[in-house]
Amino acid sequence: MRRDEKLNLPVNWEEILEQMILRWPINTRCERIYICSPCRADTPEGVIRNMKAARVYMFYTSIHFVGVPKAPHAYLPVLLNDLYEDERELALRVGKQFLKGCDRLFVCGDRLSEGMYSEVTAAVRYGITISVFNRQVYEELLERFAGDGVDPESVHCIDRNLHYALSWGADELAPYWEEAQT
Length: 182
Fold this sequence. Notes:
By secondary structure, the protein is an alpha/beta fold. 48% of the residues lie in helices and 10% in strands. It has one domain: Rossmann fold (3-Layer(aba) Sandwich).
């Protein structure tokens, strides 16, 4: 964990994110960025933690990149329970529909889940540019691509020092959103 870098989350960062989402232009064409990060966890608290991390990735992306971040898994677990296979499948289908309409995919966090790998390979099939912010996740993707015969040409690793918050996992981000709440 790198604590020498500071992620400045304002106290009302979630409210700001919601306001930005509501104000994004409806009839204006802008780049849509799909946020790909872990969702499934062993406990309900873990799922909530991953949802919150996805929201931080959306907030950070909306501040530092031009485009509209989309992270259905930041909100869908409120409605659909991963423990029921039919609801999990529905959530994955909804995510893939969001992904089809996006221009870029950002792989965020410090690990690659099976669901994320499925989204990344779908993005490759859809011709979507993929940016990975964690070097270990990038190398794991390349290794899995080689084994699965997937062309890695559309996948790029972004220097984590430029956008460190997108390379951190939920455990590294949690102290920042907890600090912002106090």
